[in-house]
Design brief:
The chain has 202 residues and is of the alpha+beta class. It is built from 6 helices and 7 strands. Helix 3 packs antiparallel against helix 5.
């Protein structure tokens, strides 16, 4: 049986090998990256959308829904849209046209005053104003009167009137309650050539 031979390793070599291994382990531990820390989670406050008011609708046909709400012209009668032709006569005046425009609007024209509106109402109606619209009622009345007159609306009695506009500012009648055209007694007005005595157009 052959004999096993062992070679003696110097003790210094073992110490050197153990030192190298220990140094390697310490260096690896020192250079390892520290564990990543996650930032604390922040809670985000989310506001729920406010509930919208449901608008009632009605179906018209297969693909059309109509909102059951009044339009602007029904909420504010002065914003109603008109489209009409004033009957042309040789004697038609601005006053006749104002009465014709207002005949089914819900408003009425104030009676003429000798010191102010009588002059406006007696003016001849321009041919350019025989057809009005589509236009808002407020704009049509101001258009018939012209830029030298200021439209005044009394929503309580649904009466409209005009006061002259001076160059230096608004008319003194508009700024003084005592001189308002709605406060003075009405004077009788001659029949209109456009409208019959019943107030309906001929």
């Amino acid at each position: 049986m052959p004999s096993l031979s062992f070679r003696r390793v110097p003790r210094g070599a073992l110490h050197a090998t153990a030192f190298v291994i220990a140094t390697t382990c310490i260096t690896a531990c020192a250079t390892s990256a520290p564990p990543t820390t996650l930032p604390p989670s922040t809670s985000i406050a989310t506001s729920e959308p406010a509930p919208s008011l449901a608008i009632p609708v009605v179906r018209d046909g297969r693909y059309t829904l109509i909102e059951l709400v009044p339009d602007d012209g029904q909420r504010d009668l002065m914003q109603q849209v008109i489209d009409l032709t004033i009957p042309a006569t040789d004697r038609a005046t601005v006053g006749d046209a104002l009465h014709y425009v207002l005949r089914r609007s819900g408003y009425r024209l104030c009676d003429e005053r000798a010191d102010t509106t009588a002059v406006l109402y007696a003016l001849p109606l321009p041919a350019a104003h025989e057809h009005l619209g589509p236009i808002a009622l407020h704009e049509a009345l101001q258009l018939l009167a012209g830029p030298r007159w200021t439209l005044q609306v009394n929503d309580e009695t649904r009466e409209v009137c005009f006061v002259p506009r001076h160059e230096n500012g608004p008319a003194s009648a508009a700024s003084s309650p005592a001189s308002s055209p709605f406060d003075d007694p009405a004077s009788p007005r001659e029949p209109d050539p456009i409208n019959d005595p019943a107030g309906e157009p001929k």
